[in-house]
Design brief:
Number of domains: 1
CATH topology: Rossmann fold
Number of strands: 9
Structural class: alpha/beta
Largest sheet: 5 strands, parallel
Helix content: 40-55%
Oligomer: single chain
Low-confidence stretches: none
Distance between the termini: 20 Å
Strand content: 15-25%
Number of helices: 7
CATH superfamily: P-loop containing nucleotide triphosphate hydrolases
Radius of gyration: 16 Å
Strand order of the largest sheet: 2-7-1-8-9
């Protein structure tokens, strides 16, 4: 799908996945601040915006009908249902970014990451995790975005997600954001 038609530089597809609360979005945002050759994909979702989230910047917030219409039109590179909400990445947005020579960053759930990796084996995939589930639970509580029931669901899902970490190019334990970010940038630049 992403064929090089000229000598123009084509960007790389970078995938960040792993359990909720592991720091995927924070790492992506740090990379975007440090290196302008990266651009984050803005995912579409049917979930309601959280406090402080901006439509078009954090997510493209859509109604379920709008999302289903885009599915019918085959507009997504991948999509999934997570916690009763739809999430997906628009093909056009990905093509626009990589064709401009920038690297596209995906912060995406496990299913989405593996779907993209299957379609685009040249993509570079990172599984971001914490050192254990206790640390993950502490991070989820500290961020204050979820109810105790949702946190419990996320921890249960994390156990299943950890079982597929070996399907990713790199498994990164995120203990210190600055160190993790530098390590990931180096791995991306040196990846063949």
């Amino acid at each position: 799908m992403f064929e090089k038609t000229t000598n123009k530089k084509i960007g790389k597809i970078i995938l960040f996945s792993g359990p909720s609360g592991a720091g995927k979005t924070t790492i992506a945002n740090k990379i975007l601040d440090l290196d302008k050759s990266f651009k984050k994909i803005v995912t579409c979702t049917t979930r309601a915006p959280r406090i402080g989230e901006i439509d078009g910047q954090d997510y493209h917030f859509l109604s379920k009908d709008q999302f289903l219409d885009l599915i019918k039109k085959d507009e997504f590179i991948e999509y999934a249902v997570v916690y009763d909400n739809y999430y997906g990445s628009l093909k056009k947005e990905v093509l626009d970014i990589i064709n401009s020579g920038k690297n596209v960053l995906f912060v995406v759930d496990i299913v989405g990451a593996l779907t993209i990796k299957k379609k685009f084996p040249e993509s570079i995939s990172f599984f971001i995790k914490t050192n254990d589930l206790v640390e993950l639970e502490n991070r989820l509580i500290k961020r204050g975005k979820d109810t105790p029931n949702i946190i419990k669901q996320r921890l249960t899902k994390a156990i299943d997600e950890l079982k597929v970490e070996n399907k990713f190019d790199y498994i990164i334990e995120n203990n210190f954001i600055a160190d993790t970010t530098k390590k990931i940038i180096t791995l991306i630049k040196n990846h063949n």
